Amino acid sequence: MFSLIKFQVHIVVLLVLLILLIESRVIFPNVPEIIDRESLLPDDFMIEDMVELENQDPEVLPNLYQGDIALNNEIFNQLRVGLRWDTFPKKRWENRTIPYAISPLYEPEDMITIMTAIRTLTRMTCLKFPKWNGKDKDFLLIWPIKYPKGCWSFVGKVGGPQILSLQPPDQTGPNCLGGEGRAIHEILHAVGIFHEQSRNDRDRFVKVVWDNIIPAYKGNFEKQSLENTTYSFEYDYKSIMHYGQSYFAKEKGKLTLVPKMKGEKLGQRKSLSQTDCLKVNELYGCLDNIKTAKKYYTLCRILGI
Ligand SMILES: *[C@@H]1O[C@H](CO)[C@@H](O)[C@H](O)[C@H]1NC(C)=O
Ligand SMILES: *[C@@H]1O[C@H](CO)[C@@H](O)[C@H](O)[C@H]1NC(C)=O
Ligand SMILES: [Zn+2]
């Protein structure tokens, strides 16, 4: 009896692998023939001055704005937890649709992780993620960029093929693909969402331990003015968009962010929190009508962390 179950498990695993092989073959021909980073990244792509970063989280390593956010020459003075579409109308994905292609350089198990993240987002939000058909002008191109290394993404739609980089596992660890969480985090940046602790009211909820932050990276902990920013939901410690407690720490294990409420933890990278889920649905107008609002409030409550 037991060995029969084991046998069935093996069959299921084989089937999944087979489906993946077929799926990846579907993905391959769609991927444009661009492999070197020069042709993938915009001319005005900014990498901040390098300071030696060791023992840091893979979201911290890319050395971009706040670690993992890629900017072109635009400066986001009008940040909110989600982008303001009235200020940046072109950064909103049209028809709630984000076509994507995955690099053939990923191992099958890493492709599964990325596709699991996309499935989670499809299930919990009103966004659609079709595979790129080779024709859509704007799409996400998920690619293991070598430099800057790590996990990073632009915020909102950039236009054209848009890189989202997820560093595959290597001898240093799982990097960005140990689970679906980091893929979800970076995709949420591409959807139009910023880090939770940059909210204007964050000082009521977290203490920034400035002395423990690597001096060159203190700017990553700035918050946004109320004049330019807004948010609709309660501060969310459980957000997949919140920094971890030791990001940009001078020494491993030193705290840079401490929650002010007892028992709260920071920096989960498992899945969307209930509020993350509502945030995405709100940003794309899916809480505006009573019927879809009811659906997504229920979905977020049941499936959110
Ligand atoms: C708000 O944004 C404007 C322009 O984007 C900027 O000049 C100004 O300094 C910002 N206000 C604050 C208080 O940060
Ligand atoms: C969005 O939908 C409209 C109407 O169906 C269509 O004309 C338009 O091309 C779509 N946009 C994209 C980017 O697919
Ligand atoms: Zn981030």
TrEMBL record:
Top-level taxon: Eukaryota
Cofactor: Zn(2+)
Signal sequence coordinates: 1-24
Cofactor binding remark: Binds 1 zinc ion per subunit.
Keywords tagged on the record: Hydrolase, Metal-binding, Metalloprotease, Protease, Signal, Zinc
Residues of the active site: E186
Name of this chain's protein: Metalloendopeptidase
Residues given in the record as Zn(2+) binding sites: H185, H189, H195
One term of GO molecular function: metalloendopeptidase activity
Enzyme class (EC, first level): hydrolase
GO BP annotations listed: proteolysis
Matches recorded under SMART domains: ZnMc (SM00235)
EC number(s) recorded for this UniProt protein: 3.4.24.-
Domain Peptidase M12A, chain residue ranges per copy: 77-287
